[in-house]
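2024-03-11 09:14:02 INFO worker-7 job=invfold-0412 stage=load source=structure_tokens
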């Protein structure tokens, strides 16, 4: 399922340009013979920020006539790809006056569609204004992130509001800013929410973690929260593998530091692996993996490696795996969708037919997300019904399926059908490869 999930990669920042002229320090002997003092410099002032392209009371524009070229192009793609929900005709020649999206083949069709006006149009208008706001040119204070957590302050991961407050983010005082910020932080905070000992899925907090999952998470949390010892060697980095990475690989690098700030004693190495990751055309081959890729050290806590290859092609290069330091996060895998590469199969046995058994065999936890309740139900059912070798009977639940506290709050609209609207990482669940306990049998 291909849905628009791009995230602005260049965040607006205020550039301060100082024009103060440094005064001369040259002096004559005893001050005699010096020239007349020049007029004192005026106090320096930062250059004023450019005026926003759009003001906050002017964010609604029909896509096809938007002042933002990228949104005009989006409107053109929707108009050409979409099919009228009333007449079934294409292209979409009529723009809904409520939402600003091209939604119907004619005004007559739009007037007949009461469901659209009552259910879909208000949500589409919200998305329209959000997208124009992101490109308005205003100073995006909500994207100015806090750094390390003070040692005497404990963050809480029970909800977006509590997290933003206890992490000392700038006051996010409106719903639009919360949607922008949640869309940007959903991927790293979903990982943090699952792994942190104060996260929303802790068993003692009434969460959804199974008995097997508690053992897996205790191992990871021990390493994540373990304070360093002066007499001991530094612990290994926590490896987070993201097979099938797409939108998450386009996030600005510094965003991943927000994950590390919640674990001050841990180091992270995050691997984005998949044929759809974004890399510059001239990216060299990584000798260790034999495929295009690059590694970036963001800071002393976080390193990012991006590898453009299917997971199964590089899986063996990462072994051996350790459940104390390794975890998989697969965002929106689409296990239950029909396979493109294996007609008649679902993707759990098609596109994921080799990679998923490899991950399960590592015995490390595998956490998955979904766009919606329907998407999650489809994936869970596909996994439960799979007869594929290496999957059937080879997994057990770590976190029961359910909603994700750190899902994106922003709706994403499908270009092929404006009635298809989802939220990134709406739900989360987790599995691991089944472990078999060997018991010794006494014989007489």
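2024-03-11 09:14:09 INFO worker-7 stage=emit residues=444
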């Amino acid at each position: 399922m291909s849905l628009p999930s791009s995230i602005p990669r260049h965040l607006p920042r205020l550039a301060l340009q100082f024009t103060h002229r440094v005064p001369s320090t040259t002096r004559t002997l005893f001050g005699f013979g010096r020239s007349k003092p020049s007029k004192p410099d005026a106090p320096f002032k930062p250059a004023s920020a450019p005026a926003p392209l759009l003001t906050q009371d002017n964010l609604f524009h029909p896509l096809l006539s938007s002042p933002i070229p990228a949104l005009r192009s989006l409107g053109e793609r929707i108009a050409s790809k979409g099919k009228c929900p009333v007449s079934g005709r294409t292209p979409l020649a009529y723009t809904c006056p409520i939402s600003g999206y091209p939604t119907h083949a004619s005004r007559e069709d739009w007037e007949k569609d009461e469901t659209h006006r009552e259910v879909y149009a208000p949500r589409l208008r919200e998305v329209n204004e959000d997208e124009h706001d992101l490109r308005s040119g205003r100073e995006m204070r909500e994207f100015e992130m806090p750094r390390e957590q003070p040692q005497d302050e404990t963050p809480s991961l029970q909800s977006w509001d509590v997290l933003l407050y206890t992490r000392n983010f700038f006051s996010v005082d409106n719903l639009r800013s919360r949607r922008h910020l949640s869309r940007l932080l959903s991927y790293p905070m979903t990982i943090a929410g699952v792994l942190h000992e104060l996260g929303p899925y802790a068993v003692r907090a009434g969460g959804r973690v199974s008995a097997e999952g508690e053992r897996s998470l205790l191992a990871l949390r021990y390493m994540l929260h373990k304070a360093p010892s002066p007499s001991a060697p530094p612990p290994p980095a926590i490896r987070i593998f993201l097979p099938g990475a797409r939108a998450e690989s386009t996030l600005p690098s510094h965003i991943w530091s927000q994950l590390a700030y919640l674990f001050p004693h841990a180091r992270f190495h995050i691997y984005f692996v998949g044929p759809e990751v974004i890399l510059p055309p001239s990216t060299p081959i990584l000798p260790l993996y034999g495929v295009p890729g690059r590694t970036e050290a963001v800071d002393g806590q976080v390193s990012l490696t991006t590898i453009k290859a299917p997971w199964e092609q590089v899986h063996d290069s990462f072994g051996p795996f350790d459940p104390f330091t390794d975890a998989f996060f697969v965002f929106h895998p689409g296990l239950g969708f029909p396979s493109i590469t294996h007609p008649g199969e679902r993707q759990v046995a098609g596109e994921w037919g080799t990679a998923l058994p490899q991950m399960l065999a590592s015995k490390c936890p595998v956490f998955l997300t979904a766009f919606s309740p329907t998407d999650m139900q489809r994936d869970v059912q596909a996994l439960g019904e799979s007869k594929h070798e290496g999957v059937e009977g080879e997994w057990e639940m770590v976190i029961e399926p359910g909603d994700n506290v750190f899902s994106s709050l922003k709706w994403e609209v499908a270009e092929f059908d404006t009635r298809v609207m989802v939220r990134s990482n709406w739900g989360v669940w987790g599995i691991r490869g089944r472990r078999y306990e060997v018991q010794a049998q006494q014989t007489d």
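2024-03-11 09:14:09 INFO worker-7 stage=report msg="The chain has ten helices and 13 strands."
2024-03-11 09:14:10 INFO worker-7 job finished
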